[in-house]
Design goal:
Elements: H1 6-25, E1 44-45, E2 48-52, H2 68-78, E3 82-87, H3 89-92, H4 101-116, E4 120-125, H5 169-179, H6 187-203, E5 209-213, H7 225-245, E6 252-255, H8 259-262, E7 283-285, H9 292-295, H10 302-326, E8 336-337, H11 349-363, E9 366-370, H12 388-393, E10 397-401, E11 404-409, E12 413-418, E13 429-432, E14 442-444, E15 446-452, E16 457-462, E17 468-472
Parallel strand pairs: 2-3, 2-9, 3-4, 4-5, 5-6, 6-7, 8-9
Antiparallel strand pairs: 1-10, 10-13, 11-12, 12-17, 13-16, 14-17, 15-16
Length: 473
């Protein structure tokens, strides 16, 4: 991709932005999703947290290098309330039909850490480049077990950009067998759905686990675009949803689009699925955002900055259109931005992070930042020292609110747009503000009920019928 320099990159990105923008204008686009996950009291929940963590891809036990003390520090520094917790098929089902209950015990223990601090958890069945089995040294790929890896002797060569390994013949063949393109291993999809059923059976009664992210960044092998998303991918989601609903009727099902293309701003052709639970369906959309210039290593500056801004705009429209389609005429389903992130030492990184969060706020999206690892992509150094990302993500946001539509900040104030309804009683809207112990919040459109300055947690009761509430420090 770097051969030929900036001209090739600019041409590709411009084509993506133009094509995505054209597709986004062909249909009407909702302004926001007004559907959210809800807590036991009926308040809308806003997800503010991390994907935790990339380290789980390579550890022998499939668990992230993350401690309870790390979580306590994260909560204190950024008042996060949500995690997209990485799990893997290889760890759930290390041998065909064999569920590793010890692994699920360890995941459950970590879910307990989050429960103790009032978080909500989405379990993410993660994969990249299929799985460990694509190379003998297990240095590329994660997710699928080795026994489920069929490459028919085709090669896999390493590449400077890890994403290009997806184009290696052996990786393509492994995916083709899974999706049924070869017709030789139909049992693989059944095993995958069965692994999810085992996870769901374990966590069905765990109130902390609110969602299942059914597959990280799906890739279709020789099938791409419409043929892949509307066919095998939608079929997998339906089969997996059916398997989960046999043991768990309440946890939300999060669908991701094909990563190639959508992450850069192109539209999705993912199909709707039928949720077998009684009552309203619980299906959510959980796309990722990695604008191509930044995926290629650029900062948020110069010509790349303009292309990235255009990508974010068309990506947002395509997210809302897909969320609306998945809602089957009842309005957009909840949206969680399951991944976005970058090396925060790049030029303009702070401005880029702020822009994405402002976009998410405006349109009602939760966010799980990538990722909760040490180093330049994460919030802390390896010795635990806070990095720049900590202050960037210590943002004002509504943690739980009645009648929430959207919210935005201008640096000095947080403004909530509400539909005017309340739950009654004494249960307040809960807001996080960056902790300023000497400053008491001023609320317009509501009354302060509780204020914890050391954590920045504010409880307010909106005025009767209030549609706008503004909080200032």
């Amino acid at each position: 991709m770097r051969v030929g320099g900036r001209t090739v990159i600019v041409a590709i990105v411009t084509a993506v932005v133009v094509a995505g923008g054209l597709a986004a204008t062909l249909r009407s686009t909702p302004e926001a999703t007004t559907e959210f996950f809800r807590d036991a009291d009926g308040r809308s929940l806003v997800q503010h947290g991390f994907s935790t963590a990339s380290s789980a891809k390579s550890t022998p036990d499939g668990l992230p290098l993350f401690t309870e003390e790390d979580l306590t520090q994260e909560r204190l520094d950024m008042n996060t309330n949500f995690v997209r917790f990485l799990i893997s098929w290889r760890a759930v089902e290390p041998q065909p039909g064999e569920i590793d209950e010890t692994y699920l015990d360890a995941v459950e223990e970590r879910v307990g850490w989050y429960a103790d601090l009032g978080y909500h958890v989405m379990l993410d069945m993660h994969q990249d480049l299929w799985g460990w089995g694509i190379t003998p040294d297990k240095q590329r790929g994660n997710g699928a077990p080795e026994w489920a890896t069929y490459m028919d002797g085709l090669p896999v060569e390493d590449q400077e950009m890890w994403e290009l390994v997806y184009l290696e013949p052996g990786v393509i063949r492994a995916f083709d067998h899974f999706w049924g393109t070869t017709g030789k291993h139909p049992e693989l999809v059944d095993h995958y759905a069965g692994a999810w059923q085992a996870v769901a059976e374990r966590f069905a009664d765990n109130d902390t686990v609110v969602a299942y992210d059914l597959m990280n960044e799906p890739y279709g092998g020789t099938l791409q675009g419409v043929a892949f998303e509307s066919g095998p991918l939608t079929d997998l989601y339906q089969r997996t949803a059916n398997a989960i609903r046999e043991v768990d009727s309440d946890t939300w099902l999060c669908l991701e689009p094909q990563a190639f293309g959508f992450n850069w701003g192109l539209p999705s052709s993912i199909g709707t699925i039928d949720d077998a639970r009684e009552g309203e369906e619980r299906v959510a959309f959980c796309p990722h955002l990695y604008p191509l210039p930044m995926d290629l290593g650029d900062g948020y500056e110069g010509s790349s900055k303009q292309l990235v801004r255009g990508t974010i705009d068309v990506w947002t429209k395509n997210v809302l259109r897909t969320a609306d389609m998945l809602g089957k005429g009842d309005g957009p389903v909840p949206v969680i931005l399951g991944e976005f992130g970058l090396d925060t030492t790049r030029n303009g990184a702070d401005e880029y992070v702020d822009r994405v969060y402002r976009m998410a706020d405006t349109h009602g999206f939760g966010v799980a930042y990538w990722s909760r690892d040490s180093g330049s992509w994460g919030p802390y150094e390896t010795d635990g020292t806070a990095r720049n990302l900590v202050s960037w993500l210590d943002r004002p946001y509504p943690r739980a609110a009645w009648g929430l539509i959207s919210w935005h900040t201008d640096g000095a104030a947080l403004t909530l747009e509400l539909d005017g309804t309340t739950g009654g009683g004494d249960i307040p809207i809960e807001i996080h503000l960056p902790a300023r112990p000497s400053t008491y919040p001023v609320v317009e459109g509501g009354t302060v009920i509780t204020w914890e300055p050391t954590t920045g947690t504010l409880g307010i009761q909106p005025d009767d019928g209030a549609t706008v509430v503004t909080v200032r420090q």
